[in-house]
Design a protein that fits this description.
about 230 residues, mainly alpha, 2 domains, 12 helices
Length: about 230
């Protein structure tokens, strides 16, 4: 006979088992992966089921709240399916019955949560969430895309107008024209044409002053051009 067997010999009530378990510091975790709470489970099997139910009816609310693992272990040990639904009637009107109802309700909620979670992992549900995220992203970035499209249209319009303007007239056009695109960026569109033009025709007078103002106000290619041709 092992030590645990000799300890539990003659155990006939739940209260006696609780005394032994606390005295011997037995594990009462229902899902213990080390010992499986076997000493407690083995001793529980020695007690008639009706005696265990009678003992559960006597447990106080304070004891149950301080020994939730032990309570669950007892319920799983004497329940037909391990849940304890059939024990609700025998324990009705007691703290044990209240705790059992709370435990069962919690298990039902967890089952429903897991079921709902699994339902969201189907290929159809995943595809639907991706489509929703894509639609939300498109909606969120719509203003940016609209501004970008407007900017690109402005670039094309400015480039076309500047390409159709003789090089000798470009500085005057830029000085008096309001573009939808930053003037600093417009410099990149005309830099090479103006550089070649003013290499052949030195810049002076009003054109030089206009280029100097553009270089000072907008820097970038305008300053680079001013430094090269002035």
């Amino acid at each position: 006979m092992t030590d645990s067997e000799s300890t539990t010999a003659g155990v006939s009530s739940l209260s006696h088992l609780i005394q032994i378990a606390e005295r011997e510091s037995w594990c009462t975790r229902p899902v213990c992966t080390t010992c499986g709470a076997q000493p407690f489970r083995n001793a529980l099997r020695e007690i008639p089921r009706d005696e265990v139910i009678a003992g559960l009816r006597l447990l106080s609310r304070d004891f149950i709240s301080g020994h939730t693992d032990m309570f669950r272990l007892v319920i799983s040990g004497i329940s037909i399916f391990g849940v304890g639904d059939e024990l609700l009637v025998p324990l009705e009107g007691t703290p044990a019955g209240e705790q059992l109802r709370a435990n069962i309700d919690y298990q039902h909620r967890e089952y429903e949560r897991r079921r709902t979670s699994l339902a969201t992992q189907t290929p159809e549900a995943i595809a639907e969430r991706r489509a929703e995220r894509k639609a939300a992203k498109l909606q969120a970035t719509a203003p940016h895309r609209e501004r970008k499209a407007a900017s690109e249209n402005g670039i094309r319009s400015a480039a076309q107008e500047l390409n159709e303007t003789p090089a000798a007239c470009i500085l005057g056009l830029v000085a008096r024209r309001e573009f939808d695109w930053p003037v600093q960026a417009v410099g990149g569109l005309v830099y090479r044409r103006l550089l070649e033009h003013h290499k052949a025709t030195p810049i002076q007078g009003n054109e030089l002053r206009t280029l100097s103002e553009l270089a000072e106000r907008h820097s970038g290619y305008w300053k680079k051009l001013f430094d090269r041709v002035s």
